[in-house]
Amino acid sequence: MTRNLQSTATLHNGVQMPWFGLGVFKAEEGSEVVDSVRTAIKQGYRSIDTAAIYRNESGVGRGIREGLAETGLSREDLFITSKVWNADLGYKSTLAAYEASLAKLGLDYLDLYLIHWPVKGKYKEAWRALEAIYADGRVKAIGVSNFNIHHLEDVMKDAKVSPMVNQVEYHPYLSQQELLAFCQAHNIQLEAWSPLMQGGLLDHPVLREIAGNHGKSVAQVILRWDLQHGVVTIPKSTKESRIIENANIFDFELSSEEITRIDELNRNQRIGPDPDNFNF
């Protein structure tokens, strides 16, 4: 399945999405985000995930241009994701938000565009807009973020195109097993944001023990656990050493017993908002 950093999952429309990418949530606009994106591309990353609300799309775009120039890769070698923010959910406003993200990134198209949160009464109109952008061939794939099963069912009821991706909070304390099973049954690729729980699991004794067995870091074990569950993962880092370390997970495999031990750490504990109870 995941042999190297360029290995891809096939979305239900045939588009190839890298299993592993760089998240840039909280990476500051300017040199911090530019450097992390450029470094990731130089280190073999092919997938970069941003969002309008991160307010760093311009820097991401610059990092992409610099990374391409330094590696000789072309735009088509990369997989770039952004997301429409809640204030822009609506048919026309979502279309406009897509154009605004492209302009900031300096790109002609995105590989994946997501609805960031399931705002009640608004996300279905936004989905119609994503379908229109997709039908026009202006985006390679469309999906959602932070959608629970009932949100997905609601969208799919009227959708012409069902979501290709659902990006959610996913880590050993929130393993979302029912949601993962639902997405797999409906050919929706689950993707993990905050896979390392913002560093909150790095001292966990079970994870440290498993990491020791493989001569790996706890972060590497968690990211490998994502992949072995068939979940795309996008850890955020701005440090070059961590960007390299996070991606060094293709030379070992967790046993089924180790996977089960990690699964059993689940507490349904979130660090982000609850998709059924948020007010922004």
From TrEMBL:
Coiled-coil regions listed: none
Could you say which residues bind substrate here? 116
Q: Which domain of life is it from?
A: Bacteria
UniProt keyword list: Oxidoreductase
Task: Spell out the catalytic residues.
Answer: 54
Q: Does the keyword tRNA processing apply?
A: no
**What family classification does the UniProt entry report for this protein?**
Belongs to the aldo/keto reductase family.
* Protein's name according to its UniProt entry: Diketogulonate reductase-like aldo/keto reductase
